[in-house]
Amino acid sequence: MTPDDVAEQIIALFRRRGDDLYGGEQVSQTEHAVQCAMAADQAGVPDSLVVATLLHDVGHLLQSVGEDAAERGIDAVHEQLGAEWLEMWFGPEVTEPIRLHVPAKRYLCAVEPDYLAGLSRASLTSLRVQGGPMSAKERAAFEDVPFCAEAVMLRRFDDVGKVKGMPIRSIADYHDRIAAQVRRV
Ligand SMILES: [Fe+2]
Predict the structure, then answer these.
(1) What is the mean pLDDT of residues 58-82?
(2) How many angstroms does the Cα of residue 32 sit away from the middle of ligand 1?
(3) Number of domains comprising the chain
(4) Domain of 30?
């Protein structure tokens, strides 16, 4: 397998499953992924974090618990599933912000009251099954975890990628940048 094959396999997964709705929101999984990656690009972050942002919810595409899982009180742990799958090919600069993007939400809810107030309804619902805002002890532990700052940045891109009908780039436009991040094949 070459880095190009890895990129193609990931893009094929989006083509197959990316039209599913993004849990409780008005956009598809692919629209959400690309909108978030576009926000990351606008912020000028390194390509590793743009690719992590694009792929942060790939775990949702790999599982089939249904897009209303959170409403049914199920925590599908998509961040773990996605990070573990991507570990086959990518380094921690891609996988760890993905693994940590749900803890990052719980962290931001604890440190920024405005952040909690600004969450979408679906995101508030999933927060409940994800454990709610972090305690002081959990916050301190999170701040010591490698790539926690990148995870917090990813989280903010995640929150803006929910705009219905926004013109977006094609997922295939990211092929070369996904391939360039591959560390093992
Ligand atoms: Fe997301």
Answers:
(1) 74
(2) 7
(3) 1
(4) 3-181
Angle at 99 (CA atoms; ends 168, 93), nearest 5 degrees: 75
Alpha carbons 58 and 56: distance in angstroms, whole number: 6
Percentage of the chain modeled with pLDDT above 70: 93
- Taking 90 as the threshold, does the pLDDT of residue 63 lie above it? no
User: Cα(87)–Cα(52) distance, rounded to whole angstroms?
Assistant: 12
Higher pLDDT, 178 or 19: 178
CATH of the domain at 147: 1.10.3210.10
Euclidean distance between CA atoms 12 and 139, whole angstroms = 37
Facing residues of 28 across strands? 21
Mean pLDDT on 65-75 = 59
CA 184–ligand 1 middle distance (angstroms): 25
- Of 135, 124, 78, whose CA–CA distance to 101 is shortest? 78
CA of 1 to the centre of ligand 1 (A): 28
